[in-house]
């Protein structure tokens, strides 16, 4: 296993404010690694330290096993793709891609061969003579990446490069970027606040919060086995219950809501002092009008507030009995639920093994905009 990038104990302070707090991670050669977090969590500061535009307060950055301490940004074997792409409008596509090669002294056939090869690799072989103004948003994106990749960096750093695109093009470019990274085999380090981008494209994702990493894992494990309440809320949709953990006379643990609902727990949370916990259940783990389920299933009576139709992402908005809390229930695609209408009273249920629990955090640790 070859390590393309190694970040060790990096911190960055601005007076009393700590933007990056003792972050360490390794990225294997040829992997797509994303740093995911809300605005202001420190992810762009961390990327700029890796690129060499900022110096860390403490810690080291190694690229291909070489310490980058004191190495200027333009001499590091990485390239950075910005959100605004920074293409040269006065140059055609070919000259934009050739710019870096010519700047470092390459000429003639060498430049021509590398540029044409890179145009082919990003699927734009016949676009060399086109002006930048003639390109679509997705094509500009690929040219900006090609201009960096032609310099053969050890790693390509991408700072929210899809942020300026419209929603439909952003969905398309998520897939295109992943396919491109697999095709060229270059290590990608990708910064985003969009969990869907990180989950779709990445081999590994680091979830960042308030300057530190909460969890570094595969997208599948982040979703299925979050290690903190922040990750549970930030990655994917989740229904959150604030409950009290109790133990009955038989040694079984359950959670009690303030409305009096008693919910079975798969396993207890290790608590000291206050017995308040946060319980999370994914919308797709909740079953509508469960029948023939296991004995220990959690069952709730709820009232339907609305059916939110969105094709394959359609869901129900419901409110439990004696509660004002809204819950989201995914509608399975293999069953018809046309009979369910607003104000209907139905039952929902879930297996306690499908829920995750954490000690209660103070205040709202994350609220989706």
Plain-language structure description:
There is one protein chain. This protein is α+β, with helices and mostly antiparallel strands. The protein is built from 8 helices and 20 strands. The strands form 4 sheets. The protein has a 6-stranded mixed β-sheet with strand order 6-7-8-3-9-10, sandwiched between helices. Strands 13-12-11-14-20 form a 5-stranded antiparallel β-sheet. Strand 12 and strand 13 form a beta hairpin. The radius of gyration is 25 Å and the shape is elongated.
For the termini, the CA-CA separation is 39 Å
**Overall CATH architecture of the largest domain:** 3-Layer(aba) Sandwich
Uncertain parts = none
CATH level-four homologous superfamily name of the largest domain: P-loop containing nucleotide triphosphate hydrolases
Give me the oligomer status. single chain
Outline type: elongated
Secondary-structure element string: EEEHEEEHHHEHEHEEHHEEEEEEEEEE
Which fold does the CATH topology of the largest domain refer to?
A: Rossmann fold
Question: What is the number of domains?
Answer: 2
CATH class of the largest domain: Alpha Beta
């Amino acid at each position: 296993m070859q390590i393309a990038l190694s970040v060790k104990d990096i911190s960055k302070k601005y007076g009393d404010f700590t933007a990056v707090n003792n972050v360490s991670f390794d990225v294997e050669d040829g992997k797509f690694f994303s740093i995911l977090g809300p605005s202001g969590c420190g992810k762009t500061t961390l990327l700029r330290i890796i690129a060499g535009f900022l110096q860390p307060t403490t810690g080291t950055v190694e690229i291909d096993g070489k310490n980058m301490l004191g190495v200027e940004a333009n001499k590091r074997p990485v390239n950075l793709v910005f959100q605004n792409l920074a293409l040269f409008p006065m140059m055609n596509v070919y000259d934009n891609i050739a710019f870096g090669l010519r700047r470092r002294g390459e000429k003639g056939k060498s430049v021509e061969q590398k540029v044409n090869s890179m145009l082919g690799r990003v699927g734009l072989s016949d676009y060399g003579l086109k002006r930048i103004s003639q390109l679509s948003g997705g094509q500009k994106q690929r040219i900006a990446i090609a201009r960096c990749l032609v310099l053969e960096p050890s790693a390509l750093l991408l700072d929210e490069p899809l942020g300026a695109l419209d929603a439909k093009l952003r969905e398309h470019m998520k897939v295109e970027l992943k396919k491109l990274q697999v095709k060229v085999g270059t290590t990608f380090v990708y910064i985003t606040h969009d969990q869907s981008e990180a989950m779709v494209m990445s081999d590994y994702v680091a979830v960042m919060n308030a300057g530190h990493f909460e969890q570094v894992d595969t997208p599948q494990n982040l979703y299925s086995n979050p290690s903190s309440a922040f990750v549970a809320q930030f990655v994917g949709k989740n229904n959150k219950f604030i409950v009290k953990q109790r133990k009955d006379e038989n040694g079984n643990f359950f959670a009690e809501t303030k409305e009096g609902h008693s919910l079975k727990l798969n396993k207890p949370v290790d608590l000291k002092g206050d017995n308040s916990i946060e319980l999370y259940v994914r919308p797709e783990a909740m079953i509508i009008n469960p029948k023939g389920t296991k004995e220990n299933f959690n069952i709730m009576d709820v009232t339907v507030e609305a059916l939110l139709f969105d094709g394959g992402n359609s869901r129900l908005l419901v409110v439990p009995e004696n509660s004002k809390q809204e819950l989201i229930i995914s509608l399975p695609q293999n069953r018809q639920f046309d009979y369910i209408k607003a104000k209907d009273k139905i039952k929902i249920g879930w297996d306690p093994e499908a829920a995750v629990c954490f000690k209660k955090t103070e205040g709202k640790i994350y609220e989706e905009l």
